[in-house]
Amino acid sequence: MDILLHLLALACYLLLGVHFWRSSRGATPSSSLWIEQLACLVPLALHAAVLQQALFSSGVLRFGWGAAASLTLWIAAVVYWLEHWQNRLAMLQMMVLPSAGIASLLPLASPGSPIAYAQPGLFTAHFLVAMLAYALATMAALHALLMAYVEKRLHERRFSRVLEGVPPLLAMESLLFRLIAVSFALLTLTLISGVVFSEELFGRALRLDHKTIFALASWVIFGVLLAGRQWRGWRGRTALHWTLAGFLSLLLAYVGTHFVLETLLGRSA
After folding, report:
1. How many C-beta atoms lie closer than 10 Å to residue 191's C-beta?
2. Using alpha carbons only, what angle is made at residue 134 by residues 131 and 139, rounded to the nearest 5 degrees?
């Protein structure tokens, strides 16, 4: 039954991805927005059920690199579902939905291990804020890649029908920096809560381990990017490179370290 739920979520995500690929090749009537949005709720709900089983089925929080990647892509898909009401970016939807579908299978590859902390409620809040930060950073990276692709096609004067529904680059750039700013704020809260409540959250004093170093590096990168945007007017390829660097550092901080420790080294993070 668990495997069937995973496969149903994947199938629904892929079907919607195909739909948005087709709709990106031509104008989609605005009247279909409600149908698209309601249809997106089906795989999102199935994916949520998958995550609930993966994280809480044993009565305690179980977490591994598979659940981390799956939860991150699910939150990214939810946030983009909300954004889709304002900006109809069929191409980005086409990228996010299949990615989330593949990610819904990852808890099967890495069930994770039980996690117990001195203050479960405080840790849950810390955990959710961190996941929101990672999801928004993921969306920012995808959005930056889309912007780079659109800009390249414009410079080559090869703006195809696929990109006709994409908003102007200035509007996309504004959205990119909103995503980065919110992700940076949530990441700041994550780091502060980790430092201030380390003993209560983790049952030990704060350690400067690989996860902390990568998370701090990502925080610095996003902070420098926002400062560069404000004071130096950074944009274009500069913004793309800094965004991807911050995202990759954040990915290594949690998903990457869980993968190395659990899959390659055979022990929990």
Report:
1. 17
2. 125
Let me know: does 68 contact 30? Beta carbons within 8 Å.
Answer: no
For the record, the structure tokens of 105 come out as 């299978």
Digit-coded pLDDT (tens) for 130-170: 888 888 888 888 888 888 888 887 777 666 655 665 677 78
Which residue shows structure tokens 């009401």? 85
Q: How high is the pLDDT of residue 192?
A: 86
Cβ–Cβ < 8 Å for 80, 92: yes
Rounded Cα gap, residues 218 and 94, in angstroms:
27
Residues in the chain with pLDDT values less than 50? 260-269
Of the candidates 138, 78, 71, 139, the one whose C-alpha atom is nearest the C-alpha of residue 110 is 71
What pLDDT score was predicted for residue 263? Answer: 47
* pLDDT at 261 (0 to 100): 45
The first and second tokens of residue 203, run together, are 């049952």
The Cα–Cα gap between 22 and 28 comes to 9
* DSSP state letters, the chain: -HHHHHHHHHHHHHHHHHHHHHHTTS---GGGHHHHHHHHHHHHHHHHHHHHHHHHTTSSEEE-HHHHHHHHHHHHHHHHHHHTTT---HHHHHHHHHHHHHHTTHHHH---EEE--S-HHHHHHHHHHHHHHHHHHHHHHHHHHHHHHHHHHHHTT---GGGTTSPPHHHHHHHHHHHHHHHHHHHHHHHHHHHHTHHHHHSS-----HHHHHHHHHHHHHHHHHHHHHHH---HHHHHHHHHHHHHHHHIIIIIHHHIIIIIS-S--
From residue 256, how far is each of 65, 167, 211, 242 by CA, in Å?
7, 33, 9, 19
